[in-house]
């Protein structure tokens, strides 16, 4: 991993503006600037790991915190009772563009089928 700061670290530090939804000691949640659903919030651990596999291996409790924050975001956004999706993109082929692990919380509308079906 590069020592250079990621975009998310600059957002967490308050150097770049964001629409904050929730934050606590270990996580930071803010609205995606290019939403793919009516509700599209990113949940980022304050400590940087490249992707979800690296996070799970290094700090399972922090991964649990990210998931708990995703559930809290769904509650705050009023979608916990209607359904929501939590997505981690891992590496370039999956669409990861910022290499600081983050969960996408998507919902607030009927979401399409996920994945490829034969």
Structure description:
- This protein has a single domain (7-107), classed as HIT family, subunit A.
- The radius of gyration is 14 Å and the shape is globular.
- It is built from three helices and five strands, in the order αβββααββ.
- The chain has a five-stranded antiparallel sheet with strand order 1-2-3-5-4, with helices on one face.
- It is of the alpha+beta class.
- It has helices at residues 7-12, 52-58, 60-76; strands spanning 20-23, 27-31, 39-45, 84-88, 103-107.
- α2 packs across α3 (60-76).
The rounded distance between the terminal residues' Cα atoms is: 37 Å
Number of domains in the coordinates? 1
> Can you count the helices?
3
Give the biggest sheet.
Answer: 5 strands, antiparallel
GO molecular function: catalytic activity
Active site: 102 (tele-amp-histidine intermediate)
Protein name: Histidine triad nucleotide-binding protein
InterPro entries: Histidine_triad_HIT, HIT-like, HIT-like_sf
Structure described in brief:
A motif (Histidine triad motif) lies at residues 100-104. This protein is an alpha+beta fold.
Features of the shown structure:
single chain, alpha+beta, HIT family, subunit A, 5-stranded antiparallel β-sheet, globular
Question: Which helices and strands, and how do they pair?
Answer:
Layout: H1 7-12, E1 20-23, E2 27-31, E3 39-45, H2 52-58, H3 60-76, E4 84-88, E5 103-107
Antiparallel strand pairs: 1-2, 2-3, 3-5, 4-5
Helix pairs in contact: 2-3
Active site: 102 (tele-amp-histidine intermediate)
Organism: Amycolatopsis rhizosphaerae
Domain HIT: 7-118
């Amino acid at each position: 991993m590069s020592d250079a700061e990621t975009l998310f670290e600059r957002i967490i530090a308050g150097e770049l503006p964001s629409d904050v939804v929730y934050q606590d000691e270990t996580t930071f949640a803010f609205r995606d600037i290019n939403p793919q659903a009516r509700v599209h919030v990113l949940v980022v651990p304050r400590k940087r790991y490249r992707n979800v596999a690296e996070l799970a291996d290094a700090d399972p409790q922090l991964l649990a915190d990210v998931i708990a924050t995703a559930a809290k975001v769904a509650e705050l956004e009023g979608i916990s009772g209607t359904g929501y999706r939590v997505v981690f993109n891992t590496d370039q082929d999956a669409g990861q563009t910022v290499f600081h692990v983050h969960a996408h919380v998507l919902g607030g509308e009927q979401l399409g089928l996920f994945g490829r079906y034969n």
